[in-house]
Design brief:
The structure holds 2 protein chains of 2 kinds.
Chain A: H1 4-32, H2 38-60, E1 65-69, E2 82-84, E3 94-98, E4 100-105, E5 109-114, E6 116-120
Parallel strand pairs in A: 2-6
Antiparallel strand pairs in A: 1-4, 3-6, 4-5
Helix pairs in contact in A: 1-2
Chain B: E1 4-7, H1 15-31, H2 43-60, H3 64-67, H4 79-83, H5 88-95, H6 97-113, E2 117-120, H7 123-126, H8 131-155, H9 164-177, H10 179-190, H11 207-223, H12 231-256
Antiparallel strand pairs in B: 1-2
Helix pairs in contact in B: 1-2, 1-6, 1-12, 8-11, 9-10, 10-11
Classes of the chains: A alpha+beta, B mainly alpha.
Chain lengths: 127, 258
């Protein structure tokens, strides 16, 4: 919520920010996918961060406040804020595989624009 | 409602540091709404500071809560009166105000030197983006993550095992990335259905898990983080956001009655 006040200053730092976080994401994925090509991982991380930062920068110029939300694994399925990729409605806890987008403004309060995508996920050992 | 843009010529040797400082000012600008007056401050300096704080608060929190606040009450709230209504946690924060105030005072000086000025934002900038564009951008990001993760997983040979040390390292990186990463790490440690060790299981398709990790990383590092700004500053800003949402209206009503 830093908004316009530091937007211009941040632009100077963005390329560095993207590089640093692309490296961090690449490092994490490299551990999880050791056989995947490093070039492929780097390219993926850069592309994803570029698109995410584009959204974030657009939101910083906007009158309304846009923010991404995340569904915790222990939350139950709620069709107001979540969209499932499973064929049936999830009965147990969920695994969030993409954040949702919400807009808040003074007139309309909080509005969910794009629901978080979730996968059915039942955590047997926690029940 | 007036909108402003703060023009800041970046002449500092260390722009990162300058941005951090500016973010701290923003943080304290809102805190300053209920901070006691420093009696040693000159009238001129206080006026300048009031102006900077007020404009910064309007720029960063363009909200009806603050547009109605008379400039004269910034920073004119008496700490003792507030403390009588505060719970223990709030009282503890208030106790730190004098030090924050001194810090703010020292931070404003460089702002003056850099010649920051505040100008109205042209209306066309404000209306540049609409909801469908955001949804479109978000869906583009979703499709990139979905499709490219499939490619990545496809290029992964399932018979390459992940060592215990690598799993621990990945969990450590996840926890460091933020709240979502911490939530994922907790799940991955407890869950048999989804765990890093299953990534090398030939019967397991890891795409959902990888997408979950990537999505959490983006939320933690891009969407919830102030880009390029120190994490501690971001925590402070987030606290202020919560503070505004939870008690901003109450504070304004109350302070207006002083």
């Amino acid at each position: 919520m830093l908004k316009q006040a530091i937007r211009n200053a941040l632009r100077l730092l963005l390329s560095n920010f993207q590089d640093v976080h692309a490296i961090k994401l690449t490092n994490l994925l490299q551990i999880l996918l050791p056989a995947a090509s490093k070039d492929l991982l780097e390219s993926f991380a850069s592309r994803v961060l570029e698109a995410a930062v584009d959204i974030r920068m657009a939101a910083m110029e906007e009158k309304a406040l846009y923010q991404a939300f995340w569904i915790k694994h222990s939350q139950k399925y709620d069709d107001q804020r979540m969209r499932t990729l499973a064929e049936r409605l999830p009965q147990g806890d969920v695994l969030c595989i993409f954040p949702g987008l919400e807009r808040s403004d003074a007139q309309h309060g909080q509005i969910t624009l794009l629901k978080a995508f979730v996968e059915n996920y039942v955590v047997v050992e926690w029940r | 409602m007036n909108w402003f843009r703060v023009k800041i010529p970046i002449r500092a040797r260390d722009p990162q540091s300058f941005v951090d400082k500016l973010a701290v000012i923003v943080f304290l600008a809102v805190e300053g709404l209920h901070t006691g007056i420093d009696s040693e401050m000159t009238r001129e300096r206080r006026w300048y500071l009031q102006d900077v704080l007020f404009q910064a608060a309007q720029v960063c929190f363009p909200d009806p809560f603050y547009t109605e606040i008379p400039k004269s009450i910034i920073p004119g709230i008496i700490v003792e009166k507030f403390q009588t209504r505060a719970d223990a946690q709030t009282a503890s924060r208030i106790a730190a105000y004098p030090e924050q105030w001194r810090r703010l005072y020292s931070l404003v000086e460089p702002l003056e030197r850099y010649g920051a000025s505040i100008t109205p934002i042209p209306a066309e900038i404000i209306t540049n983006y609409t909801d469908p564009i955001y949804v479109q951008k978000f869906q583009l990001l979703f499709s990139i993550v979905r499709d490219r993760v499939e490619d990545l997983v496809g290029s992964q040979m399932n018979d390459v095992p992940i060592s215990t040390k690598a799993v621990e390292e990945a969990l450590k990186l996840l926890r460091r990335s933020g709240d979502c990463g911490g939530d994922s790490a907790e799940m991955l440690q407890k869950s048999a259905s989804y765990s890093f060790s299953r990534l090398s299981d030939p019967t397991f398709s890891p795409a959902s898990l990888i997408r979950h990790i990537v999505a959490g990383f983006l939320v933690d590092r891009v969407f919830r983080n102030a880009l390029g700004v120190d994490d501690k500053v971001v925590e402070g800003l987030r606290f202020i956001e919560d503070s505004i949402v939870n008690r901003g209206k109450f504070l304004v009503c109350w302070t207006n009655s002083l």
